[in-house]
Amino acid sequence: MPLIAVHDLAFSYTNSMADAIFRDVAFSVGAGDVLCLLGPNGTGKSTLLKCLGNVLQGWRGVILLDGSDISAMRPSDVAKGIGYVPQNQAPGFPRPLGYPPTTTVAPPQERSPALHPARRP
């Protein structure tokens, strides 16, 4: 039995499936399988993952997690089997002044002596 099975999945941000972001999606993922979603920006990859984790409501079709339909499961039970980490996450704390938004600064005791600011690795 697959860990995740998807049958005839469709999703639209409007009430009309004529505006569906995707439709007729079907696949299964078993233990040890690797699934890769590739496609241009704006084609629904993140939306599909949000539907799989039951983060978005209003999708149509069937999503089974270990054989159970996630539409009938409690969110906490779905979260035990499917995790969703968004691609854009705002930091929960302010960054140090003078550093760009994507820079992480390690405390001095955790910095490698080989990575001295004046030397190149």
Walk me through what this model shows.
- The chain has 121 residues and is an alpha+beta fold.
- It has a domain at 4-81: Rossmann fold, CATH 3.40.50.300.
- Helices cover 12% and strands 20% of the residues.
- It has helices at 45-52, 75-81; strands at 4-11, 22-29, 60-65, 68-69.
- The protein has a 4-stranded antiparallel beta sheet, covered by helices on one side.
- The chain starts with a strand and ends in a 40-residue tail after the last helix.
- The relative contact order is 0.17.
Helix and strand topology:
Layout: E1 4-11, E2 22-29, H1 45-52, E3 60-65, E4 68-69, H2 75-81
Antiparallel strand pairs: 1-2, 1-3, 3-4
Outline the low-pLDDT stretches.
none
How do the SSEs run, as a string of H and E?
EEHEEH
Average pLDDT for all residues:
81
Q: CATH topology of the domain at 4-81, which one?
A: Rossmann fold
The radius of gyration is: 20 Å
CATH class of the domain at 4-81: Alpha Beta
Content-based structural category: alpha+beta
Helix count, DSSP H or I runs of 4 or more residues: 2
Give the DSSP E fraction (strand runs of 2 or more residues).
Answer: 15-25%
Termini separation (Å)?
49 Å
CATH 2nd-level architecture of the domain at 4-81: 3-Layer(aba) Sandwich
Largest sheet, described in full?
A: 4 strands, antiparallel
Assigned CATH superfamily of the domain at 4-81: P-loop containing nucleotide triphosphate hydrolases
Overall body shape: globular
Let me know the number of strands.
4
Adjacency order of strands in the biggest sheet:
2-1-3-4
Helix content: 10-25%
